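Example record

The entry below shows one chain as it appears in the dataset: sequence first, then structure tokens.
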Amino acid sequence: MLKTAILIIATGTLLLQSSRPAGPRFEQVYPLEPSEGVFAYARIAPDGRTLAYASEAQSGRALQRTIKVVQLATKNVLFTEPGIDAYWSNDGRRMIYLSQTGAPNVTIRHHDSGELARSVAPMQLGDYFSWAVRDGRNLILTIAGNYYYLDGDRGVMPAGRVPACPGIGTGERPLISKDGRRITTFVRGTVVVRDLMDCEFVLDTGIRGAKADFSWDGRYVAFHAPKTSLKGYDIQVVDTQQRTVRTVTSALAGSSLFPSWTKDGRLCFRYDGADYRGFMMADRVLDVPERPLAQSASALPAQPRWADLFPETPQPSSRIAVVMIWAPWSAHSPQALLDLQQAAAGTDAVAIATALEIGSRRIDADRIRRDNRITLPEIPLAPSRFMETEAVNQIPTSLLFRDGAMIDRRLGAQTAEDLRAWIQRAIADLTPTPPGV
């Protein structure tokens, strides 16, 4: 009897394994218009039925960014308004975003009624919102590491701030878990998972990836990172308990970007390839084989030198230099290029250049430069050296060099005013060149 029982159990296991799905399934759920870009992340509603994203389109020489809320089954656009950074509440009934109607302000929209609550919180606390429910209270986190609870549709002040942790500081550009306990952030180029309010849990994934979204149980984080070929991006899923990683989109030829989780464990992400441009859905993502995370994180050098990153290009004679790394697929990039070009005007003492990242097609880059009349010089950046910059985390990224050493960097698009002030501070901090140098 014992042998029979074992045989039955073993046979059942074999049948279960043989009927198990081989891997993820992908579905194209919403195509982009040929000339349409997506500004930053997009977010799927918890039930997977509705998508919110910031559509970006060229209007003359101006760029217009419009929040779109789309019902995926019908492709109907349910709501539009000038703005960016839409993020759903945990119950899917509200959405927070930065409205750019009239004076920019933080707005909450009620999905069922269409009611809008304006000026929810001070703008200086930051945008790039993420939403959680902690101890029964709705909590909003911003890109600047500030967070506040909501009383109805109003932010409760004063806001809190993510504390620094030994060895990693606060991290940059965080997103929060659905229960408000943890955040994902960038530390010296790698994705780090840590506690929101203390430092008891810190996991450096060792992976140079982008904005990382938490699954609904808080166990997994999903983000895009460079393909092993360094030709575009794949979606990676890290198991924070087992400390393993899965590559979900390796079967897709194009770039997969900015994933977000549905409550039932699917991933919605933006896809950019020659075969399709738009949003896709993946299910059975945990069927992908997992592998251990690297034993130790590979931190980026604190001050890489010009010759380390751009050996094909002679170091500029100017003591101060700025290089912006950008990509045609990033809707931030056209305006960032325009702002850099404006900031560069009248700064003959500073060398200004641009460089393309690994997922860029030459034809797309040339079109953006031509349409926006960008005349800034472009220098080569090899894929392996792209991996040595924090542009892996955020496109565009601007690097500031002094005397051939990188002294600062800015993740994300910067205004012309901010870039000009950044450059002027670097010039003001210059010490006289020693005689004979």
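Notes for this example: The mean pLDDT is 89. DSSP finds six helices and 30 strands in the chain.
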